[in-house]
Amino acid sequence: MAISRRRFAVLGAGVAATLTGASTAQAAPRSRQRPAIRNVVLVHGAYADGSSWRKVISLLQAADMNVTAVQNPLSSLAADVAATNFALARQDGPTILVAHSYGGTVISEVGLAPNVAGLVYIAARAPEPGEDFAALSAQFPTPPVTRGIITSDGFKIIGKTAFFEDFANGVPRKEALALFAAQGPLSTAAPTTSVAAWQQKPSWYAVSKRDRTIDPDLQRFMAKRMGATTIEVNSGHLSLVSHPETITRLILDAATSS
């Protein structure tokens, strides 16, 4: 059954109580308003595919948003940029561009597209132009998931144990099994961006406090460097799966504020 706009607003008010942490603007929740922007493009990360956004997609559509989920090839940054640009070109107006994990590298590269009004990062990479993300990550504790990464034929995947314990921690096992089956291998080629769209576009960031894939303090560092409006979620890396209402609320706030 479709969720009415009024019911979604009530849902959002409850979700607001779960949001904690630093923010560049301690504003009251704004999802009670009709978002000024109706288009949302979602970019998944490594070791995943577009289905990882399933719950968020349903909630956004229930709020009358026009949603497009990109299917990244993950074969190269150039291929993922092309897929995201193709999705952006299909939008009929201003768009909120959202990314999880590695997808943050993609939206940092393509986010200067004229129809992108704002950027939302969910436990995501947010590199500066030309930055070596591996070198940046090395300045923080090594995330536990690293021990379970398997490399073969130019691609990386996460082994089953590490996938459940470190990548999908906090996700019910039945859902984690489905996500593992849809795991997208990531190219071993180091992606390097030429621009950082967050330097010019309004940005939001959701830090996952129990993340075992990207260190939470690294996420906080990137969010602060971006000057992003920031929330913290008591979640593992896949907050879009375990806390979809919270993530949807953040996206709607971006759509209302941009």
SSE order and pairing:
Layout: H1 5-16, E1 39-43, H2 54-62, E2 66-70, H3 77-89, E3 95-100, H4 103-110, E4 116-122, H5 133-137, E5 149-152, E6 155-158, H6 160-167, H7 173-181, E7 186-187, E8 203-208, H8 216-226, E9 229-233, H9 239-242, H10 244-257
Parallel strand pairs: 1-2, 1-3, 3-4, 4-8, 8-9
Antiparallel strand pairs: 5-6, 6-7
Report what the structure shows:
This protein has 258 residues and is an alpha/beta fold. Helices cover 36% and strands 17% of the residues. It is built from ten helices and nine strands. The protein has helices spanning 5-16, 54-62, 77-89, 103-110, 133-137, 160-167, 173-181, 216-226, 239-242, 244-257, and strands at 39-43, 66-70, 95-100, 116-122, 149-152, 155-158, 186-187, 203-208, 229-233. Strands 2-1-3-4-8-9 form a six-stranded parallel beta sheet, sandwiched between helices. It has a three-stranded antiparallel beta sheet with strand order 5-6-7. Strand 8 (203-208), helix 8 (216-226) and strand 9 form a beta-alpha-beta unit. It is globular and about 45 Å long. Residues 1-31 have low confidence and may be disordered.
